[in-house]
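ERR on first pass: missing label on line 2. Operator R.T. fixed the label and resubmitted. Corrected input:
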Amino acid sequence: MLSLIVFTPVVGVLLLLLVPGSNHRAIRWIALGAALASLGFSLALLGYDPAGSEFQFREDLAWIDAFGMRYTLGVDGLSVVLVLLTTLLSVVAMFYSFEPIQTRVKEYYIALLLLMVGMLGVFVSLDLFLFYVFWEISLFPMYVIIGVWGGPRRIYATVKFVLYTLVGSLLMLVAILAVAIAHAASGQPFTFSYEALRGFAYADTLQALAFVAFFLAFAIKVPMWPFHTWLPDAHVEAPTAGSIILAGVMLKLGGYGFLRFSLPLLPDAAVSFAPIVIGLAIVAIIYGGLVAMVQPDLKKLVAYSSVSHMGFVMLGAFVFNEQGLQGAIYQMISHGITTGALFLLVGIIYEQTHDRLIEHMGGLNARVPRYAAMFGLFTFASIGLPGLSGFVGEFLVILGAFRSNGLIAAAAMVVVIISAVYMLWMFQRVFFAVPSDWMRRFWPTLRDINRNEWIALSPLIVLVVVLGVYPGPVLEMIAAPVDRIIEAVNGAGLTGFGPLW
Amino acid sequence: MDLLIALIPALPLVGFLFAVLVGARLDRVPLHGHGDDHHADEPHADADHGDGHDAHDVDDSAFRSVPSEEEQRATSPHAGHADDLANAEGADGVIPADMSDGLGQAGHVAPGAERPRYRSWIVPTALVGLMWAFSMVVFANVIFGHNEYEVTIYEWIASGDFRIEISFLVDALTAMLLLVVSTVGFLVHIYSIGYMDGDRGFWRFFAYLNLFMFSMLLLILGDNFLMLYVGWEAVGFCSYALIGFWYKKPSAAGAAKKAFIVNRVGDLGFGLGIMMIWVNLGTLQFGEVFERIGTLDEGTITIIALLLFAGAVGKSAQFPLHVWLPDAMEGPTPVSALIHAATMVNAGVYLVARANPIFIESPAAMWTVAIIGVFTAIFAAAIALTQNDIKKVLAYSTVSQLAYMFFALGIGAWVAAIFHLVSHGFFKGLLFMGSGSVIHGAGGEQDMRYMGNLRAKMRWTYVTMVIGSLALAGIPIFSGFFSKDEILAEAFNRGYLLFYAVGTVVAFMTAFYTFRMIFMTFWGEWRGPKAVWDHIHESAPTMVAPLAILAVPTVLAGLVLGIPPEEGVIHTWLEDVFHEAEEAHAGVLPGSYLDGYIQKGEAHHFEIFGLGGLLLLVGAAVATAGVLLAYRWYVQRPGSAERFVDRIPLGFGPGMYEASVNKYYVDDIYQLVWARGGVLLSNALWWFDAKVIDGTVNGAGWLASTVGAGLRKVQTGRVENYGLGIAAGLVLVLLVLATVVR
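pass 2 clean. output:
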């Protein structure tokens, strides 16, 4: 089943190769069909039994036996929710792209489908080398998507994005090799199997080095402060669908990496490094919000708000308790939905005016009220209004942080003010008062959300409400993985391998 | 009964969904206004004193005359078709007109414009009416049947040992709130039918009102602190949406944002307080928390209580977070009546009252509550004295009256606080709706300097508003007299003489500014433009009826609930809720001079021919004096106020007057420090981000590519060069770090 989910998009790619590039209609529907099929298959994962064994839907095939690399797939609750998020947002992004993308349509959809393969593979791999391969596969389609269909400075942005991430992933490769070799050096068979490597007690120095290497790879992807500067550039230049996937899923690869690898594989190092990571997370939360406040470009504002929101993921992950970790995962899902939707909405106005400057807007509520209402919905979801999805994750993370230290929680809680300031100030300037002189030129032709856009948005609208009102099933799904992480970390004792300095 | 309780919040939620989904199709508003549009089509002649107070009117009309997508859809023959169809229509003929209208010019009344049709109010209002009926049943059952109900709907969040249920609790305290919220809420719905007539956002308004009712009911019905917080945030959102309802006015949009953000400052504390409770006690359910709170040390309890109180300060607009409430008057007046006078702003008082077992454990927290209350009471009253906008007077009055309640809570007079909450909810709701009727009748004018003699044309409004004002001023037999004097008497009896003195001064100021408002509005000569005078008329029955209905509890609430003073029936009703708190230390805190003199549990008895009677007499005299002074200064000898200001010794008068008019510059200071300072800091950080952090990143890239250029003979691909270069650099960094780590 997992192979089916991951490789159905490849079938789509093969079919696309047979279609002439000029037949846009067929290309779009084939690509969407493949993505929808993958989404459909992924729904089967809802059958995951939270009370059952850890990894279900397993597949295990020999791959490169000489080096102990196997094709091992399997999902736990954490993987399940992220796979579903990926397939859903991919479908949304593809459907939304029907109208905006009119050049090199075939290549565009091939890139999106390959991107999907890479991201899905990352979430289901149980072999570290396989994980690395999928990780790299996910990188290059995005490089192409930004570089070809992006904005005016797309080359700068995409080169920066890809080099930055590449540096991280090369370090990760080194760390993976080091871990596997250390494991083998103790007389065990040479393997990249996650389950085998996880239970092993690595030497402190190795843990520290491997942790730093993993950390850089994942922190760049998340992105954590101060490794975040590629993100605003990439978002600003990326086409709308690229932004949706980038913010909605790709950032979660980093968060997933921390939860899947850094913590369980290297628990002592994780405990020892936790104060630093928490510090950086707090900086990201506050700093991201403050910088978002003064961004003139809507997409940059949302990008910096992502830095702030992903800071919550990191904070929750490194306080090592149920509330924090569950909150972190929930925050990833919620952030994927709200930020994906916000980028989609920004795209709708951008397609019409080819401009995203906040000062060029104003008064839109009068002209496009439905658009304004939807933007408002996701704005308030993003600032954590109870009843919408953002609240649950944010509250749980801060609660988890409070359990470990009240002052950390207080610092993180400042975000309730900052996020309200930057989001509502933006909302006021874009939707209230009267249109700017610039916007008036577009006033006669400005249109509200059209049918296609409604279809693309509707699953996100439903989810943002449902996840806010009834988080039970998702929390239940991620409870067991979270408990396992805590178990691993607790095994490390309270001090890891002792204070760093 | 359980089902009934569950239905109480559910009904407005259904109303909200209904209004959102089909409301737009039920209303039909002609494109360019209509004949009966009392705001838009009247020649507006106040350009001669155009210091901004006419913004409401002009922008309002602008708002009304701009067709939005919905309205076009609703009016178009193709209503209900696919969106792009509507968009296509939008792109055709209508927009040029829209363009000009949207920018604030008066809407041209299209010839043969059809009368508007409104139907979107029916279902939401009916549902709220039903909700009111259910609430009354529950109220009676709880109060007279001495019942308490707990209803669990479902488990909301379950994360490890953190488990939160959506569940409701109805005890006597909730029942009292339920009485106020559902009654005023229902009446405001009816009132809005008339008030919002002619507004293009009609259905939207009812949608938000219903959502507000739902949120407010969650707030008061919730059985744990997190539910309270959910309702708390949700009413904050509704308040945002409704203050900014006329979003075309920049001032309204700004006020909405300000309200939400200032509230969030308080919520920061509230949220942390909730977390601290859970971390220390492992539960958020009210009963369990209150049972276990005694196990904590006093320092922890004090921090928890103060954090909770921070939320209350924000929501109930107490100093120093009071700045949002007066600005919130930018919203439509029914909103001011419902949210910013009778219900939502009481949430802070409710929170402290509900958490009374926490607060009584911490004298420091109680003192803080009392001091903030007393200070805000006189501070806000001192601003209300000089305001000329009728709604601003009432807004500062609300701040001041809420402060009375906190003052009462702080000294342990729990029941008196709730008593005042109930009576204030009724009479302030009445006064706000009355002011809305005045504004409506006077063609959108809000500045009392351009009103006068309205009693000649608005009988009902006048009579009901005077009743409300008598209650607010604390004139005997009206509800405010009993509730306010109970607070003052309790302060006196418990030995807080300074608080009592300040409270009495505030009572005098209250009576003065209240009747200053009445006399400036309804008495004397009409001071506005002549053309407006001819159009002034009594408001529609849907608006006047709620005034008349609210006048009943305004007159009777005190007599029914508050006699004999300090031992009225409301004390019996609320006995279970506050029993232990009253026992704890008879409301006398360490530091009060009666500390040690009053024994625990010793009841104080009211005697009409004793101290109690004397205090009542003082209260009545002070209130009457305030009314008489207002009469002398604003009816008998207009201009006295100015002369009085000039006669204040040492020339402080004009300065003091200016300071009061300018709200003691608190807003300006906040603007400078927080708004300007925040943007400055953010810009600095942005510069740091672009130059320092990103500069380092790009510098590393540049370095790598320069090194790579030297190695070009061996390498070919450019990207790889970059990559290897940076990788090498970072590995180096890693090695250095590794040596440091170990």
